[in-house]
Amino acid sequence: MNIKLKSIVAAIAFAASCSAFAADPIKIGVSGPFTGGSSPMGVSMRDGARLATAEINAKGGVMGRKIELVERDDQAENGRGVQVAQELINKERVVATVGYINTGVSLASQRFYQEARIPVINNVSTGSLVTKQFLPPEFADNYIFRNAANDSIQSAMIVKQAIDVNKYTKVAILADSTNYGQLGRADLEKALAAKNITPVAVEKFNVKDVDMTAQLLKAKEAGAQAILTYAIGPELAQIANGMEKLGWKVPMIGSWTLSMGNFIDNAGKNGEGAHMPQTFIQEPNTPKRKAFIDAYLKAYNPANGRIPSPVSAAQGYDSMYILAAAIKQAGDTDGVKIRQALENLQDKVDGVVTNYDHPFTHDDHEAITMNMVVMGKVQDGHVVYANAADKANAVREKDMGKAKK
Amino acid sequence: MEILAQLIVSGIALGMIYALIAFGYQLTFATSGTLNFGQGEALMLGALVGLTLVGHMSYWLMIPLVLVFGALQGIFVERVGVQPAIKTKSEFGWIMTTISLAIIFKNVAENVWGHDDITFPSPLPTSPLQFMGIRVLPMEILVVVGALAIMLAVELFNRKSIYGKAVVATSNDRDAAGLMGINTGMVITFSYALSSMTAAFAGVLIAPLTLTGSTMGVVLGLKAFSVAIIGGLNSGMGVIVGGLILGIAETTTGYYVSTGYKDVPGLLLLLLVLAIKPSGIFGKSVIKKV
Known about the structure:
Chain B: This is High-affinity branched-chain amino acid transport system permease protein LivH. Chain B: InterPro entries: ABC_transp_permease (IPR001851), BCAA_transport_permease (IPR052157). Chain B: It is found in: Cell membrane. Chain B: Pfam families: BPD_transp_2. Chain B: It comes from mine drainage metagenome. The complex is a heterodimer of chains A (405) and B (290). Chain A is built from 14 helices and 14 strands. Chain A is of the alpha/beta class and 405 residues long. Chain A has two domains: 26-149 and 282-368, Response regulator (Rossmann fold, 3-Layer(aba) Sandwich), CATH 3.40.50; 152-278, Response regulator (Rossmann fold). In chain A, β8 (226-230), α8 and β9 (252-254) form a beta-alpha-beta unit. Chain A is globular. Chain A starts with a helix and ends with a helix. The mean pLDDT of chain A is 88. Chain B is mostly helical and 290 residues long. The mean pLDDT of chain B is 86. Chain B has a single domain (2-276), classed as Orthogonal Bundle (ABC transporter involved in vitamin B12 uptake, BtuC), CATH 1.10.3470. The longest helix of chain B is centred in the first third of the chain and has 31 residues, at 2-32. In chain B, α1 (2-32) packs antiparallel against α8 and α2 packs parallel to α4. A two-stranded antiparallel sheet of chain B has the order 1-2. Classes of the chains: A alpha/beta (405), B mainly alpha (290). Chain A binds chain B through residues 35-37, 39-40, 177, 203-206, 208, 210-211, 213-215, 217-218, 221, 233-234, 237-238, 244-247, 262, 265-266, 268, and chain B through 3, 6-7, 10, 13-14, 110, 115-117, 119, 126-128, 130, 135, 137, 206, 209-211, 213, 215-216, 218-220, 250-255, 258-260, 262-263.
């Protein structure tokens, strides 16, 4: 053997021994829209997850192994989401996936994880159906979890704000024609019916519509005192700007997407005062939140010091910590064991949104309950607490009484 | 009554946007029998280039530059996509090339300007004017006036100038015009330049009303295409009337029937026109000589 060959053999042997020591990383999928109209949410979620992963890895990872994120852009399209799911499961062999911003993409893609017995933590998508696709008795175990405020919670809060707090009796609903908008509209109508109120107008529009005159005129003529919305940023901005054009200004109260940067920027002064439910508002009112906000701003330096979608960033960050805790408890990367650990998590997870103490059970896969969600409002281009009391009483733990129901 | 008037006014503004884009389809169809299916993307590029320029100069100064950019973009499309197809007498080659160029333009725009929708600063006050209870945005008036002005300018050019006459001659009979010494290839290139120029102009006109982004042209380009079919691909009057019909049908159906069905009357009309008078309401039916 000549010297060259010897050194190559030695190098290979050395490399092999090294890789035996440093165990393979744990692969976790991240699926979200990083391009298009939903991208402020997708990118914030991804950056939150990256931040958490970097912190976990800096402390030595999980079970002595580093976490590696496999990020894929689902473009907010259902078909693309399905492709991403299949790639992550079959090619990348992820042990779990976090993500999903769009309800439609969640509903279309999760089936593959359920069949492969790999847990999914939905950290942003809000459709009420998302965690209820695979329930017993048809499915023995459900692999779909969520740490976001679902639409039942959000619609109830929107209706509470409009009917109980502001004492309106006539409200109009404006929702877009996507799965998100129409499922949300149904939840809003249900929540209104519980208070014996029928909306005076229920209107629909398409994504990319440029003229909202007809929808707004109908609401105006019906005498609506407020507009309840279920849509995403750009179209919400068209609604706010359309009201200015018609010289008709009533409050906008809607789903959490009213906190999106592309609503706030494109609506400008017309978007001021819009109210929306939020799990997290970019205010450093606890040490944990201050550390999170500082770390995010330092790492990603967003324009105007504003996280594009603070809620998505916080929930993306928390979802990684919950998952890491579950993998640690399971002591294994098998999907079934991770699910069992998630459903009976012993360690408390100190998150940005709340302290997660047993966030899930076998029959309850929703980590966020109504008591954790606060009303935010748009003020001077930022989302702030609508009620000062919420700001002081920042961290609320899961409402078990409600969860057992 | 006031509501109907308000709906019609909004419909007119919307319809003129469609008409202006449809006018671009018509310009190239007249001279070469081909269409630029990237018309919506030409509009989007015009708006985004305008957005970049408007940071350095006033809105009004920016418009001529955007017009020049639009014309160059049209020449590029014609030279790269359409001319080879016409030369080889390919019946449908230009359909594929203009569509694929449109996709390329969209991807380039995504890489240059990003994926998000951006606000275009309005050159006019954003508070509405009021006429007898009807509210109109100053920008909407500018859209209608601007659209009519550029269509009128192009028509006048075609009728009065010697170059315009070459365009008209080529539209009437390309082979005969060629025999008369008109460089018809040049005229077709020119018509593409004009077509993309009007689209780019439409882009900067409507951008302050809508939002600016790489996907803004897709829906508009498609709707304008149905306007061009409804009005007739060889009638300038047709695209204006077709645009107004579609715009007003959308806003009034949205109010009186349901906002979920607002796109239906336009599509029904399209089917009806195709069934009864395929050359469009104002179109002249041409016998194709084989």
